[in-house]
Amino acid sequence: MARVMRLAAQDLSNRLNLDKAARLAGLAPTYFSKCFRRKVGITFAEWSAQLRVAEAKVLLKVSDLSITAIAATVGYSDMTTFERVFRRIEGVSPREYKRTLQI
Q1: d(CA 56, CA 58)
Q2: Is this structure's pTM higher than 0.70?
Q3: Domain 46-102 superfamily per CATH
């Protein structure tokens, strides 16, 4: 489990999904999901989304990359999905978040 989490955190653009993560752990996806949730307290998908949004927040603070480039850097090929996930976790859109940093 720790190895999978470390690999996911090292390369967010890799788009490590549940099936790939389970394969890396040598487990069936359903069993991996159950074990992950028991150990971490949230689903793999939610953990992965939180990890990606946390990295996106750092990039929004310290880089001049566009929001589209940041979304791609943290593993989202679709801006709509990135914005929806970011808003669900942070309560504001990436643009609104970036605006608050500039004030």
Answers
A1: 5
A2: yes
A3: Homeodomain-like (1.10.10.60)
